[in-house]
UniProtKB/TrEMBL annotation:
Native organism: Spirosoma sordidisoli
Protein name (database record): Hint domain-containing protein
Limits of the Hint domain: 181-292
CDD domains referenced in this protein's UniProt entry, alphabetically: Hint
UniProt KW keywords: Signal
Annotated signal sequence range: 1-27
Length: 334
């Protein structure tokens, strides 16, 4: 009897917490915007993720899945010795990047069982919510440890929102449609392992490009595991102008090298002297790294541009090393 009461309590807490969380996360939605439909919920639930730890952003079946707040998995190890994990993804439509809700994925590391729960946004169709409640009741209660881990994760995220999170940008506005597109224009030259280059749009999984190992600070070949393509949109390409850091500090009278332009969307991560940073957050005077003769050389930012040009299609790579070289500059996987 106590076990049944505990299960019912977890079910109620999880349902109430989820509803509150969804209202907080999607409070910026307008009253006229259409939320997730029951058919969309079914389609999202059917999406299979090959590698939950590595696949943090991808498109599938007309949807974009993006790891919630770039969180790693929540990991739980109970007294039964079984490790359980919860992964959270934001769900967007691929066509117009409209936010629909969350996908919570539970994994039992011992059995390998994976359970998906589609959590609709606050403005979703009632039938989408009914499907989620049914999953909590008829799927969640059959797997020991699932309801408690899911309840904890959703409660923890809601607590963070109540503590001050708003789901909006620092400027107070809604997140832009291209916020989740960490990319380059089609003609961005990616350096191959042999030193030549190819436009990023022509690469494919299996190609070997020039990569970078941050742990050893060495340039090395790395294999492309995936090419991401984002189309049917309007994407602003930002830029920074770079000059050799050693040349700027040598104080010689030699003719300085003309600055080189590096382009990407403002949120694409690059390697700086202080670590990973979005290109749009890089300021004049900071150091980025370019590859020369198989080595990483420091280049200083001498000028930044918020908008160099606009393109209607952008690309990014996923690599085994987690870093590759575009236009001679070391960039990081999303």
């Amino acid at each position: 009897m106590k076990t049944n009461l505990f299960a019912i309590l977890l079910f109620v807490v999880c349902a109430v917490t989820t509803q509150t969380l969804s209202q907080r996360v999607w409070a910026q939605s307008t009253a006229t915007s259409m939320g997730m439909t029951a058919d969309q919920a079914t389609a999202v639930k059917a999406i299979k993720i090959a590698n939950l730890d590595k696949d943090t952003y991808f498109k599938s079946g007309g949807f974009i899945l993006d790891r919630y707040e770039e969180r790693p998995a929540y990991v739980f190890t109970y007294s039964d010795g079984i490790t359980r994990k919860i992964y959270l993804y934001k769900v967007f439509t691929a066509q117009d990047t409209k936010e629909l809700g969350l996908l919570a994925i539970y994994k039992n590391e011992k059995s390998g069982d994976v359970k998906s729960f589609v959590i609709p946004g606050a403005s979703a169709d009632r039938k989408a919510w009914d499907a989620y409640i049914d999953d909590l009741k008829y799927v969640g209660e059959k797997e020991p440890g699932l309801m408690s881990t899911l309840t904890f994760v959703l409660s923890r995220e809601m607590a963070g929102l109540l503590a001050g999170g708003s789901g909006k940008s620092e400027e107070g506005g809604d997140k832009k449609k291209d916020e989740y597109n960490f990319c380059f224009a089609a003609d961005a030259p990616v350096t191959l392992a042999n030193g030549s280059s190819k436009p990023i749009s022509t690469l494919q999984a299996g190609d070997v490009v020039q990569g970078y190992a941050a742990a050893t600070k060495t340039v090395l070949p790395t294999r492309v595991t995936k090419l991401n393509v984002h189309e049917a949109g309007s994407f602003t390409i930002a830029g920074v102008w770079l000059s050799p850091a050693a040349e700027l500090t040598a104080g010689t009278q030699a003719q300085p090298t003309a600055p080189v332009l590096f382009e990407a969307t403002a949120n694409h991560p690059v390697l700086t002297a202080t670590g990973r940073k979005a290109l749009g957050e890089v300021t004049t005077g900071e150091l980025l790294y370019r590859t020369e003769n198989g080595r990483a050389e420091a280049y200083r930012v001498v000028r930044t541009e918020a908008a160099v040009r606009t393109v209607d299609r952008v690309y990014s790579l996923v690599t085994e090393a987690g870093a590759y070289v575009v236009g001679g500059t070391i960039v990081l996987d999303k």
